[in-house]
């Protein structure tokens, strides 16, 4: 093995002393000690000792150990001994591994759909919990010991918290104590993006959940703030559990002593969120659904939108006529599938219906074999997952033995007529493989349709040159593309121009760079085009190793980057994680820094010290920022709410209040309303007590034509918690 010493991963830290260095004959390694530059008072006294072990040029293990300056010498002694013990050079062993499906908002280029991606959770014997994508990209990695609260390493591989979507991985943190036996003990609570989740929490006894608990549902997100609440006995749900959404009870039922659902239940639809408040009501018998189940859409009022029957014996099979909602069913995409089940399998004719304010319409469907193997046969019209009121994409073709065969057309419904806008061929053998020339239509962002991918398939893999085209209603122009490997691995290589998510007339963003073996490597530029031309506005570096890990200085665009809200972020990446100082740029009239703050240097993604953050709905007409301090990953102390008109240069204080040391709002607060902007400036003010609004709150309005008159009270609310 040839190894060279690399300690570049700590360049941006202040290296005080390289305490140990191993020779080349052995596996190469080094210890580095440094002090965090952070002025954060929790750490100002603490020295950090790190052990880095490298194999084959890549960083393998990085073990932080906290030491106070007074005792650093003792620790160096210990570490040196460790190093002479060969066993410590071994890769960390994996104690626990599981794969879960989470929505990473990732785009599948083959199926042209958002996919739930499988990610792996690894727990290692060096006390890390690692969330990584299948390509090995680390999404979040942290010590199982929590948030530096304890300084010894704890072996709590029993019962770690598991996150189920990207937002949770980034924002959800659990807080609590460990008992003597290194198991969770006592009250545990949670924060979301630094703010306490008031409702959430409960007790652990020797690592087991006991008694009353309230938890975020598995797929909790900012747009799906649903909690479930009930009782645990030795980590098993028992008795009545209820679902709460926006303070209202929306479902629930009973668990029996075996922890099975039993009796009448209302459960949430898969992917329940603000725009898709779907619930199912019916009966469970020993954990299986039986008899009639109804499907409800809850919006203003509850409306029955579907349902059917499960077998009477309680095997949990669907039986007979069913009206089901599509996977991506939501207010603007009300697609249902109607047909028959036999012993839990679809048989015979199934129809696809779409409904909107104008009524109900059959839009597609086809045949399943009678045999009950759920195999599609004959002519089918399928619809896009994102079949919405404003973009109606469908696929016409033939199935043979459950596989697509021969010509398939992609059509768009334009009012009354179906217009062909894409498609291609599947092989005639019935393998379901795409072959020859294809035009694939993106339905990624149905609000802004018009992107197609044109190129060739060989054995279901993209090969050779592919172009990305944009139909902007006036003409069709090529805006991106590149080459796939001719070997038929479907891997991108060489120079590529990629189209960003949500590309449309007011957000013409492309990324330009190089692929090696299907992975982004080296410098990638972000280009933005508008009426004034096409400029490079950002970018950064991917590691050459082909893991798509971002390193060094990056200038990135925000998710909602459009010509009227040009927000960008600039700072350092370390192993794909933001670390150190990050600035927030906003370009309107002039490009200036309007916010930012510091992430921990270790890549835990923890915000430290003073931050100026943008409001979620920040845009030209509602330039609102939050300004305050993070301590221990929680918002604490005074947070100010600042606001400026689009033509002003200074932000002015408009509201804010106080967080206590647990990230909970406490005391007098002035808050802005959803939809706050210059023509609709509405604020609320009143008292919080431990995170809950109490007593008299008033709502005030300011007329933008008469700013000098200030805010005028328009409403009073009483909270009696
Ligand atoms: C993308 O979709 C295709 C076709 O549905 C599927 O075969 C493939 O596994 C998907 N890829 C990922 C990464 O999910
Ligand atoms: C819900 O109620 C609001 C206000 O009454 C109304 O504007 C809206 O159209 C309703 N939405 C639906 C889906 O019925
Ligand atoms: C902007 O320029 C880049 C780099 O030359 C190019 O690849 C991209 O297609 C252009 N964008 C648009 C929208 O034309």
Relative strand content: over 45%
Largest sheet: 35 strands, antiparallel
Report the strand count. Answer: 47
* Estimated structural class: mainly beta
Low-pLDDT parts are: 1-90, 144-159
The first-to-last residue Cα distance is 67 Å
Tell me the radius of gyration.
Answer: 28 Å
Quote the average pLDDT: 80
Helix share of residues?
under 10%
Q: What is the tally of helical segments? A: 2
Bound molecules: 2-acetamido-2-deoxy-beta-D-glucopyranose
The general outline is globular
Write up what this structure looks like.
The chain crosses the membrane at residues 46-69. Keywords: Membrane, Transmembrane, Transmembrane helix. The structure is a single chain. The protein is mostly beta strands. Among the domains are: 8-90, no CATH class; 549-721, no CATH class. It has a 35-stranded antiparallel sheet. The longest helix is centred in the N-terminal third of the chain and has 13 residues, at 72-84. Mean pLDDT is 80; it is low at 1-90 and 144-159. The structure holds 2-acetamido-2-deoxy-beta-D-glucopyranose (3 copies). One 2-acetamido-2-deoxy-beta-D-glucopyranose binds at residues 108, 110-111, 115.
SSE diagram, text form:
Elements: E1 14-21, E2 29-35, E3 46-55, E4 58-68, H1 72-84, E5 94-108, E6 113-124, E7 128-133, E8 138-143, H2 166-171, E9 172-178, E10 184-192, E11 195-205, E12 208-216, E13 226-233, E14 236-245, E15 248-255, E16 261-268, E17 278-285, E18 288-299, E19 301-310, E20 318-325, E21 334-342, E22 345-356, E23 359-368, E24 376-383, E25 393-400, E26 403-414, E27 417-426, E28 434-441, E29 451-458, E30 461-471, E31 476-484, E32 492-499, E33 508-516, E34 519-530, E35 533-542, E36 550-557, E37 566-574, E38 577-588, E39 590-599, E40 607-614, E41 623-631, E42 634-644, E43 652-659, E44 667-672, E45 681-689, E46 692-702, E47 712-719
Antiparallel strand pairs: 1-2, 2-3, 3-4, 5-6, 6-7, 7-8, 9-10, 10-11, 11-12, 12-13, 13-14, 14-15, 15-16, 16-17, 17-18, 18-19, 19-20, 20-21, 21-22, 22-23, 23-24, 24-25, 25-26, 26-27, 27-28, 28-29, 29-30, 30-31, 31-32, 32-33, 33-34, 34-35, 35-36, 36-37, 37-38, 38-39, 39-40, 40-41, 41-42, 42-43, ...
This protein binds 2-acetamido-2-deoxy-beta-D-glucopyranose (NAG) (3 copies).
Keywords: Membrane, Transmembrane, Transmembrane helix
Transmembrane segments: 46-69
């Amino acid at each position: 093995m040839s190894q060279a010493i690399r300690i570049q991963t700590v360049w941006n830290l202040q290296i005080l002393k390289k305490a140990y260095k191993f020779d080349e004959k052995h596996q190469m390694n080094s210890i580095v000690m440094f002090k965090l530059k952070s002025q954060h008072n929790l750490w100002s006294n603490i020295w950090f000792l790190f052990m880095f072990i490298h194999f084959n040029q890549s960083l393998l293990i990085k073990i932080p150990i906290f030491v106070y300056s007074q005792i650093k010498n003792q620790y160096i002694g210990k570490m040196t001994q460790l190093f002479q013990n060969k066993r410590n050079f071994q890769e960390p062993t994996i104690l626990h591994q599981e794969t879960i499906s989470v929505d990473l908002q990732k785009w599948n280029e083959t199926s042209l759909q958002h996919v739930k991606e499988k990610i792996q959770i690894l727990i290692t014997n060096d006390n890390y919990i690692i969330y990584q994508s299948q390509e090995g990209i680390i999404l979040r990695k942290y010590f199982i010991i929590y948030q530096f609260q304890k300084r010894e390493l704890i072996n709590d591989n029993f019962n770690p918290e598991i996150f189920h979507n990207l937002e949770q991985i980034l924002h959800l943190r659990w807080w609590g104590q460990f008992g003597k036996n290194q198991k969770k003990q006592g009250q545990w609570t949670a924060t979301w993006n630094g703010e306490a989740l008031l409702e959430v929490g409960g007790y652990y006894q020797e690592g087991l959940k006991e008694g009353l608990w309230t938890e975020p549902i598995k797929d909790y997100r900012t747009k799906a703030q649903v909690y479930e609440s009930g009782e645990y006995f030795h980590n098993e749900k028992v008795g009545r559990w209820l679902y709460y959404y926006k303070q209202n009870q929306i479902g629930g039922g009973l668990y029996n002593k075996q922890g099975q659902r039993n009796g009448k239940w209302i459960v949430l639809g898969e992917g329940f969120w603000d725009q898709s408040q779907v619930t199912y009501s019916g009966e469970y018998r020993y954990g299986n659904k039986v008899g009639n189940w109804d499907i409800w859409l809850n919006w203003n009022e509850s409306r029955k939108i579907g349902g059917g029957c499960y077998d009477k014996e309680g095997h949990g099979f669907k039986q007979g006529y069913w009206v089901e909602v599509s996977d991506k069913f939501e207010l603007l995409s009300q697609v249902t599938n109607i047909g028959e089940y036999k012993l839990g399998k679809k048989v015979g004719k199934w129809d696809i219906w779409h409904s909107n304010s104008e009524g109900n319409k059959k839009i597609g469907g086809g045949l399943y074999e009678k045999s009950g193997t759920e195999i599609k046969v004959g002519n089918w019209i399928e619809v896009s997952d994102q079949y919405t009121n404003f973009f109606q994409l469908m696929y016409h073709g033939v199935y043979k033995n459950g596989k697509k065969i021969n010509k398939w057309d992609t059509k768009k419904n334009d009012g009354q007529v179906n217009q062909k806008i894409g498609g291609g061929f599947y092989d005639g053998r019935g393998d379901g493989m795409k072959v020859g020339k294809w035009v694939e239509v993106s339905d990624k962002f149905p609000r802004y349709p018009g992107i197609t991918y044109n190129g060739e398939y060989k054995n279901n893999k993209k090969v050779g040159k592919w172009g990305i085209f944009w139909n902007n209603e006036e003409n069709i122009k090529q805006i991106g593309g590149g080459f796939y490997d001719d070997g038929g691995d479907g891997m991108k290589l060489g120079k590529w121009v990629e189209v960003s998510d949500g590309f449309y007339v007011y957000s013409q963003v492309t990324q330009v760079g190089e692929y090696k073996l299907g992975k982004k490597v080296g410098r990638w530029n972000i280009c933005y085009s508008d009426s004034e031309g096409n400029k490079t506005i950002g970018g950064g570096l991917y590691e050459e190793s082909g893991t798509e890990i971002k390193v060094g200085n990056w200038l990135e665009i925000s998710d909602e980057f459009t010509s009227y809200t040009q927000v960008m972020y600039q700072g350092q990446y370390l192993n794909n994680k933001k670390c150190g100082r990050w600035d927030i740029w906003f370009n309107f009239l002039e490009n200036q820094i309007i916010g930012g703050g510091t992430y921990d240097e270790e890549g835990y993604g923890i915000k430290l010290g003073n931050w100026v953050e943008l409001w979620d709905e920040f845009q030209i007409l509602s330039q609102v920022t939050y300004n305050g301090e993070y301590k221990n990953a929680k918002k604490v102390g005074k947070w100010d709410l600042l606001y400026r008109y689009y033509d002003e240069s200074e932000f002015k204080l408009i509201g804010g209040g106080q967080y206590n040391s647990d990230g909970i709002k406490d005391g007098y607060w002035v808050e802005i309303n959803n939809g706050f902007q210059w023509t609709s400036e509405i604020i609320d003010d009143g008292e919080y007590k431990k995170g809950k609004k109490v007593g008299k709150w008033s709502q005030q309005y300011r007329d933008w034509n008469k700013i000098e008159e200030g805010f005028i009270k328009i409403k009073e609310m009483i909270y009696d918690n």
